[in-house]
């Protein structure tokens, strides 16, 4: 690690709050995202529960994500083009209004008892599309309201936000749906979402710098042509795709909770939350990451650490399978194999922490090495990777688990991740030598 600025020597282990002090615009945007994000996560969980209430079908619940996948991909690509062609403040604000209206309609349908599965699918898709556009636009905004040396710290602060959103939002949704019902749950999200407007509306006008391409096939072609000429950005995409494709054991959690560790739904909830806890911890203790200079190597090493933790998760499940018995576990949490559950959770905490460290550097590289008038489109492509990778990973794990034991997909997948990250690091010398002081795509 080499200091990236003269202030690096004064860094401590805790998250660097300097971006919040240096840029009031970033502080408002960050706070608005944090508050609104909790509500958004509440609504995501509530919609799933609502669909299950109407259908009693897990397959129907999975349809919420599948129905929104293609629109999210289109929104990621088109939203990135919009961010590279128009005032980014206006693009984000219009998308936020769309999400707010869709959530308001969800609340209205719940209060009137007029909700239906098609309506829930459609409104959840609008929310997902709007969130995708906002994300692509927001990522292109940060380099315009913060100095370059503070972008890693800003990415870490966003990691804290994501950790809080993913842990607090779903928990609140479960409590609120169980106590006051769907109408109030959606309505509270409508109220919380107004915080996003404050953060976005207070931004200055932010027009793209450099040559502007109107949204369309030509603009998209220019974006992919740039990616073809950007080996470092392309390498980080490939490393991330490897991690998401081979390191996503989440579809195994229900079977693990029922057949191996015991504890049923509570075990599934603990395993699901563990990764988010890791994300939040890595962000909180991210103070020294801003001084890392060789960020390409840091990304690859963090992804390899992610793979190692996935392997450890597989080993824990393997040992629990060998030492346990199908008759010794059950759906009650009192019957769970607590030592194995603790070790499995710690491994998943490690995956979340490693992924967040990688994400901090990947985000920083995207925001500093990519020209301003290309940032939206490249972020759009990245959104497609993020949206599609885990679903491909679910398919990999699901298919492999049919032919092998539950411990095998994460054990093999983690080893593949470590090997692929090493291979990419070796084959792309510019990525291996990427210097934060001289960012090049």
TrEMBL record:
Transmembrane segments: 59-79, 91-113, 119-141, 153-178, 184-204, 237-260, 266-285, 306-326, 338-361, 381-405, 411-428
Membrane topology qualifier: Multi-pass membrane protein
Major localisation: membrane
MF GO annotations: transmembrane transporter activity
Cell compartments where the protein resides: Cell inner membrane
InterPro entries, alphabetized: MFS_dom, MFS_trans_sf, TM_effector
SUPFAM superfamilies linked to this entry: MFS general substrate transporter
Keyword set, alphabetical order: Cell membrane, Membrane, Transmembrane, Transmembrane helix, Transport
Highest taxon above the source species: Bacteria
Residue intervals of the Major facilitator superfamily (MFS) profile domain: 188-441
GO cellular component: plasma membrane
Cross-referenced PROSITE patterns: MFS
PANTHER family given in the database record: ENTEROBACTIN EXPORTER ENTS, INTEGRAL MEMBRANE EFFLUX PROTEIN-RELATED
Protein's name according to its UniProt entry: MFS transporter
